[in-house]
Sequence to fold (70 residues):
Amino acid sequence: MSIRRTKTRRTEASDYYSYRLVDTYRTASGVRQRTLCNLGNGFVIAPEQWKALTQRIEQIVLGRQDMLPP
Fold:
């Protein structure tokens, strides 16, 4: 699971981006990604914290518990 920044459109003045929570998986044709959740263009969490966020989401989805609180 990871967060991906995707360019959604471009104007003469600036580019617009959207953020998506994606899951990566392997098929016979190669590696694919599927969007699990569109986080929108107002996603304000710093990129340094994305890995910790996606790990926590994965723990919640899979029902795992840490020994120490997040």
Q: What stands out?
A: Strands lie at 2-10, 15-27, 30-40.
